[in-house]
Structures are given as structure tokens and as C-alpha cells.
């Protein structure tokens, strides 16, 4: 009885395991995580990163990213406000401590959408997330999806395709990821993502309905 009580209090204090989604730009990370957060809005919370890139049409400051200047971002890094940060395709990106704490304070599963440098750096912390790689079916499909998304200049597109090759190689390193999902047919990949997280989803639902 006491054991059950304490273990419940302890797991509530420790909070659910965060989830890292990583993979090439254009692989479908945002699409998948938005679907997940829509179906399980009381289970998942998004870690809102900082970036120096410009907002795209439809993106909202504070929801998709915190859009900042290089000076502001660097000052935050120097101040120790970030868990990790990286340079990607000519812009700075980073996960602040506050971004993760805000989600964890609500007892939600924190989802981080970060590149492979972020994955490497998070592995040096005590965050202990589940690492999920989202991969495109092929480079050709990736290029088509990025072009059809119409968010990138030709230069930015080429940079992302170059980075994608490196990201795809990284995902093959043994132990880099717990789960690898090839995002071909969206509904299938979404099903795989949900299945991979079902155990954590049930844990959170149990804790949040019993407290
Ligand atoms: N290391 C790190 N990478 C991030 C962070 N936020 C976003 N990224 C990654 O930066 C890359 C570019 O993101 P973005 O400009 O939104 O382009 P998109 O992935 O093509 O939609 C992606 O690989 C993201 O996963 C962060 O806080 N830290
Ligand atoms: N399974 C899929 N089939 C076809 N198009 C997809 C699929 N998944 C994502 N897309 C589309 O591909 C583009 C890139 O997806 P996005 O979620 O923005 O990728 P990421 O966040 O990894 O950069 C978007 O226009 C999205 O609508």
C-alpha cells in the first residue's frame, strides 16, 4: 500500500520520459508531432526551441519557436539558459532549460524536435528521453517534399539536402535511436509512432487521472 503510494509520488515527481524526434529536414517530424499532440493534447507538450531563422507563414512566435536575434541567443547561451544548442543550415537553434521545465511542470511528456547535434548533446544530459528517428523513404522523396513545402530558398534547400545525407548516416549508427520510422505513408508512420509511445502515454494518463 505504502509502496504503491510512494512509487506513484516518485514517478509523478520524476515525470514521464521526454521524447526526442530527429531526422532530416522535410522527413515529416512536425507533421507527425502535430498529429500526436492533437490526438493526445493532455499528454504531450512541445519543447519550444529558440531559433535565429525567420518565421515561416503560419508559424507563431512562442508556439513554433521563440524567434530571436543571434545576439539574444548568444547571451542566453552564455548565461547558461540552454540545455543544448546547435548551428543548422546557417541559423542557431537551441533548447532552453525553461522550454523543457514548462512542459514537465504540467506533468506532460515533453517532445523535442532537434537535429543530430542536439541528439548527441542531449545524450550527455540526465534527460533520459526516448530517441525516435523519422526518416524519408528516399532522398528523391525528401527533395520533392521539401520543394512542395515551398518554405525554402534554393540555397536553403540545398543546405538541408546536404545535411539530410549526414543525418541519414547518423541514424544508422548502432544505438543512436531507440526507434526508427520510415515516413512513407503518413497514417502508417503515425501508427508506428503512437505504438512506440503507448506505454508512456498510458503512464501519463494514469498519473494525471489519479492526482
Ligand atoms: N539542436 C537543435 N536542433 C533543433 C532545435 N529546434 C529545431 N532544431 C532542428 O533544426 C532543423 C531545422 O529546423 P527548421 O528550421 O524548423 O526546419 P524543418 O525541420 O525543415 O521544418 C531540424 O532538424 C530541427 O529538428 C533545437 O532546439 N536544437
Ligand atoms: N508521409 C508523408 N507523405 C507525404 N507528404 C508528407 C508526409 N509527411 C510529411 N509530408 C509533407 O512533407 C513536408 C515536410 O514535412 P514536415 O513535417 O514539415 O517535415 P520536418 O518537420 O521533418 O521538416 C510537408 O509539406 C508535409 O506536409
UniProtKB/TrEMBL annotation:
<comment type="similarity">
    <text>Belongs to the guanylate kinase family.</text>
</comment>
<dbReference type="GO" id="GO:0005524">
    <property type="term" value="F:ATP binding"/>
</dbReference>
<dbReference type="InterPro" id="IPR020590">
    <property type="entry name" value="Guanylate_kinase_CS"/>
</dbReference>
<keyword id="KW-0808">Transferase</keyword>
<dbReference type="GO" id="GO:0001917">
    <property type="term" value="C:photoreceptor inner segment"/>
</dbReference>
<feature type="domain" description="Guanylate kinase-like">
    <location>
        <begin position="16"/>
        <end position="198"/>
    </location>
</feature>
<dbReference type="Pfam" id="PF00625">
    <property type="entry name" value="Guanylate_kin"/>
</dbReference>
<protein>
    <recommendedName>
        <fullName>Guanylate kinase</fullName>
        <ecNumber>2.7.4.8</ecNumber>
    </recommendedName>
</protein>
<keyword id="KW-0067">ATP-binding</keyword>
<dbReference type="InterPro" id="IPR008145">
    <property type="entry name" value="GK/Ca_channel_bsu"/>
</dbReference>
<keyword id="KW-0418">Kinase</keyword>
<dbReference type="GO" id="GO:0005829">
    <property type="term" value="C:cytosol"/>
</dbReference>
<dbReference type="GO" id="GO:0004385">
    <property type="term" value="F:GMP kinase activity"/>
</dbReference>
<keyword id="KW-0547">Nucleotide-binding</keyword>
<keyword id="KW-0963">Cytoplasm</keyword>
<dbReference type="InterPro" id="IPR017665">
    <property type="entry name" value="Guanylate_kinase"/>
</dbReference>
<dbReference type="InterPro" id="IPR027417">
    <property type="entry name" value="P-loop_NTPase"/>
</dbReference>
<dbReference type="InterPro" id="IPR008144">
    <property type="entry name" value="Guanylate_kin-like_dom"/>
</dbReference>
<comment type="subunit">
    <text>Monomer. Interacts with RD3.</text>
</comment>
Amino acid at each position: 500500500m505504502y509502496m504503491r503510494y510512494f512509487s506513484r509520488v516518485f514517478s509523478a515527481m520524476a515525470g514521464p520520459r521526454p521524447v526526442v524526434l530527429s531526422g532530416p529536414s522535410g522527413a515529416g517530424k512536425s507533421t507527425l508531432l502535430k498529429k500526436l499532440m492533437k490526438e493526445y493534447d493532455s499528454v504531450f507538450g512541445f519543447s519550444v526551441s529558440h531559433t535565429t531563422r525567420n518565421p515561416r507563414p503560419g508559424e507563431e512566435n512562442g508556439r513554433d519557436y521563440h524567434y530571436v536575434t543571434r545576439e539574444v541567443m548568444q547571451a542566453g547561451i552564455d548565461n547558461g539558459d540552454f540545455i543544448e544548442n546547435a548551428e543548422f543550415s546557417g541559423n542557431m537553434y537551441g533548447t532552453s532549460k525553461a522550454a523543457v521545465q514548462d512542459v514537465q511542470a504540467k506533468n506532460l511528456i515533453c517532445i523535442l524536435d532537434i537535429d543530430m547535434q542536439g541528439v548527441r548533446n542531449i545524450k550527455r544530459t540526465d534527460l533520459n528521453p526516448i530517441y525516435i528517428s523519422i526518416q524519408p523513404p528516399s532522398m528523391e522523396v525528401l527533395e520533392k517534399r521539401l520543394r512542395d513545402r515551398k518554405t525554402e530558398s534554393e540555397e536553403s534547400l540545398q543546405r538541408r539536402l546536404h545535411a539530410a545525407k549526414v543525418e541519414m548516416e547518423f541514424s544508422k549508427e548502432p544505438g543512436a535511436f531507440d526507434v526508427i520510422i520510415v515516413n512513407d505513408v503518413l497514417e502508417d508512420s503515425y501508427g508506428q509512432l503512437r505504438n512506440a509511445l503507448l506505454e508512456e502515454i498510458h503512464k501519463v494518463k494514469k498519473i494525471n487521472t489519479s492526482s
